[in-house]
Specification:
By secondary structure, the chain is an all-alpha fold. It is built from three helices and no strands. It has helices at 2-10, 17-25, 30-52.
Length: 66
């Protein structure tokens, strides 16, 4: 799951059906794959909106972890 999530985050254009099949082969349902994809996509979207608007990281968030 994490391999898929990282690939979808870093190189989304390289995600192929085989990546989804790998998730299925270890027991993830199609709904699970959809949920994983939606969460990864949402965070990418939200981060790009925040970056695009110049929103600063909250004071409580440790530096270097963003």
């Amino acid at each position: 799951m994490l391999t898929y999530a990282v690939k979808l985050t870093r190189i989304p254009g390289k995600v192929v059906e085989g990546d989804v099949e790998s998730l299925r082969s270890v027991g993830f349902s199609d709904r699970d794959v959809l949920d994983i994809c939606e969460v990864v996509a949402y965070y990418a979207y939200a981060n790009r909106i925040a970056d695009g608007l110049g929103i600063d990281i909250e004071d409580w968030y440790p530096e270097g972890d963003a």
